Structures are given as C-alpha cells and as structure tokens.
C-alpha cells in the first residue's frame, strides 16, 4: 500500500475527503502526514482528530524555499512517503521536492486547465462569463498548474451562478473525483 502525505493550507475539506476514503477503504493508501504552511489552519484540527502526524511551518521562519523544503523532505523520508497529494496547498512546489518526487506529486485545481490557472479560478471563470468549469487533477511540475492532466470533470455554470454556489458545486465534485482518481493512480503504479 502506498504511503501518502497531504499538503494543505486551509480548511481541509479535500484532506477530509481523502482521509474518509482511506478510512472506508475506497482509497487503498496510508495517510501518514499532513504538511501545512499555516499554523492555526482548520486542516490541522482535522488531522489531529484522525491521529495523523502533522508538520506545520511558517515560511518566514526559514531563509528561503529550499530550506523549508529540505525540512519537509526530511519529514517525508522519515515516513517513507511515496506520493505527495496537494489539497489546497497555496505554495508552488520547488526543485527540492520536485526532484525527489518526479511524477509523484498530484494537485487538484478548481477549473478545466489550462483555463483559469493560479489563484481564484472560480472568480476568474465567473468574471470571464464562462458557461462551464470543473475540476482538474494533474501532476505537478515547475509551473503553476501546468503539469500533465490526469483527470478532468466538467460542470455547467448556471445563468445566475454566484461565487458561493459555484464553489459549493466544485467542492462537491472535488470530494468525489479526487479520491477515486487517486485510487486508480496509486493502484496502477
């Protein structure tokens, strides 16, 4: 069974969906570590309740990205982590982790990439007047949301769609698609 670490920065709803899938057996993996760059984030409480180890850090306590990524790498190696799963982690992954985990870092993004990469993809879609959006799961490379696509699923954007209603639809889709896609990926490698 593959050992995974989830990287998250916020509330952790995708972290919870992944953890629930592991507990239920729908995702056959060992969730060994949460990596979080925001002390006080709700995702930390979720991990604590599940008894999952956490590595929580503040980037400003390090002189540069390489330094904190080396510390993360140490934590990953101690737990023999096979895959890094990004779930609302609001930092670009740097060369230290990319070189150690080639094609083993997976991200979820709330748009149909290559449309609306980066921050606030939901707002970007609404501002552009898009008639559809969705979710993309992709491998992470050195760019922002530019890695090879693993899976995508589309949703329609309604005429009177609000940011909140679209965000709710996308989160619901993410919580379903991410664990299923991870299961397929982790059992095929």
Structural overview:
The chain has a seven-stranded mixed sheet, with helices on both faces. It contains six helices and seven strands. Helices cover 40% and strands 23% of the residues. It has a single domain (2-188), classed as Formyl transferase, N-terminal domain (Rossmann fold). It has 189 residues and is of the alpha/beta class. Helix 1 packs parallel to helix 2 (42-50). It has helices spanning 13-24, 42-50, 65-78, 95-100, 121-128, 163-188, and strands spanning 2-8, 29-36, 53-56, 83-86, 105-109, 132-139, 149-156. The chain is globular.
Main beta-sheet strand count, sense and barrel state? 7 strands, mixed
Query: Total strand count, please?
Result: 7
How many structural domains does the protein architecture include? 1
What would CATH call the architecture? 3-Layer(aba) Sandwich
Task: Write out key terms for the chains shown.
189 residues, alpha/beta, Rossmann fold, seven-stranded mixed β-sheet, 6 helices, 40% helix, globular
């Amino acid at each position: 069974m593959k050992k995974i670490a989830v990287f998250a920065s916020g509330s952790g709803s995708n972290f919870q969906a992944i953890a629930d899938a592991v507990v239920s057996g729908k995702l056959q993996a060992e969730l060994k570590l949460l990596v979080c760059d925001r002390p006080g984030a709700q995702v930390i409480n979720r991990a604590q309740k599940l008894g999952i180890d956490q590595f929580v850090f503040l980037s400003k306590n390090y002189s540069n990205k390489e330094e904190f990524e080396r510390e993360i790498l140490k934590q990953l190696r101690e737990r023999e982590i096979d895959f890094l799963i990004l779930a609302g982690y609001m930092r670009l992954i740097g060369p230290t982790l990319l070189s150690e985990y080639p094609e083993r870092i997976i991200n979820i993004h709330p748009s149909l990439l290559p449309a609306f990469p980066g921050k606030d993809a939901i707002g970007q879609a609404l501002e552009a007047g898009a008639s559809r959006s969705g979710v993309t799961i992709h491998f992470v490379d050195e760019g922002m949301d530019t890695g090879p696509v693993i899976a995508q699923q589309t949703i329609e954007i309604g005429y009177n769609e609000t940011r909140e209603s679209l965000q709710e639809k996308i989160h619901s889709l993410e919580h379903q698609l991410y664990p299923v896609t991870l299961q397929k990926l982790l059992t095929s490698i």
